[in-house]
Amino acid sequence: MSDPLSASRLPDLPDAGYSTGLQRELSDAIMFLIRGIERDRLLLLQVVIEGQKTWRKRFLQAYRVIKADEEFADAVFRYLVLLAGPNPDAQKAILEGMERQRRQETWDKRLSTLLTYSKDRQRLEDAIAKELRQPKRTYVS
Fold this sequence. Notes:
Elements: H1 21-39, H2 41-50, H3 52-62, H4 70-84, H5 88-105, H6 111-133
Helix pairs in contact: 2-4, 2-5, 3-4
């Protein structure tokens, strides 16, 4: 029985097989890196937007201890591009806008701040009502 959704699923994480325990540990480290990046959507989109050249440079510097080569860095980057999906620039703009809106709505929920704003609002409403009650003087020249 074939899986109708198999075409929409991501491929397995890049894996070259294990000959030694060190290779297994390195593979685990890369999987940990990829899982961390995919959990932080903004970071994932930023990596994809910055491009393969920047990713390769940073990846090779960070994993020079394991002697990672460009082919391995490119395989990981291709997987990250698949995770990001289409149009990462628009996705990032939408996520940043949502985060900015959330911060504006919930920036300060302390009771003292709410009371201060409610007192200021009440004073403003009282001043407007007082201004409206005063008789207006009209001068005719």
